[in-house]
Amino acid sequence: MASPAAAGSRPGPTAGPPVLPPGRGALLRGVARTLLTTAGLLVVYALLPLDRPFTVGTVLALGAGVLAVGVLVVVQVRAILRSRHPGLRAVEGIALSLPLFLLLFATAFVQLSGSDPRAFSEPLDRVDGVYFVVTVFATVGFGDISAVSPVARVLTTLLMVGDLVLIGLVLKLFLGAVDHRRAARAGSPAPGRDG
């Protein structure tokens, strides 16, 4: 079989050696980065001054945070496309994007509850805020905490829609980037995903 150079074709800019499963060192570094990132986000959440009143500024900060998550997703997809271990990089991207998104809403819910203790079926502290967003994300909805006020219901609805986007679109983007990178490294066209 003739080499690509002998056949007159040149490999594309993303071609290279085949993607191999991550070695032990790469896997340990990926797990460490994932754990440290999640722990760091939780520490920041624990230290944020959430005793401030819920205002239009809170809503704007939440919107800016959600936009930042969108930018982060784009950056993560680009990193996956360049990574030697795209599957591992995708897991790291999800482990950063998902907790950040959920903690943004937990922060807003805790501030809203502090300003209006009747916004939810019970006042929320930081742990309750995380618990509530995780039960909404997981679609468990135990019913022990529920949004009562119109503002709480609107924010909870936005969280649900955002969860669907995160689960559907973002995971599809990450998996598509992994497939594309693996195919590029193997020298074959990227397989299409049913859509």
List keywords for this structure.
single chain, 195 residues, mainly alpha, Helix Hairpins, 5 helices, 0% strand, disordered N terminus
Write a short abstract of this structure.
This is Potassium channel family protein. This protein has 195 residues and is mostly helical. It is 67% helix and 0% strand.
Protein architecture, described:
This protein is mainly α and 195 residues long. It has a single domain, classed as Helix Hairpins, CATH 1.10.287.70. The chain is 67% helix and 0% strand. The protein has 5 helices and no strands. The protein has helices at residues 24-47, 56-82, 86-115, 126-137, 150-186. It is elongated, with a radius of gyration of 21 Å. Residues 100-174 form the Potassium channel domain. This is Potassium channel family protein.
Q: In terms of per-residue confidence, which ranges show pLDDT below 50 for 5 or more consecutive residues? A: 1-14
- Kindly state the number of beta strands: 0
- Largest pleated sheet: none
Percentage of helical residues?
55-70%
Helix count equals: 5
DSSP strand (E) fraction? Answer: under 5%
Q: List SSEs in N-to-C order.
A: HHHHH
Sequence-ordered SSE layout with sheet pairings:
Elements: H1 24-47, H2 56-82, H3 86-115, H4 126-137, H5 150-186
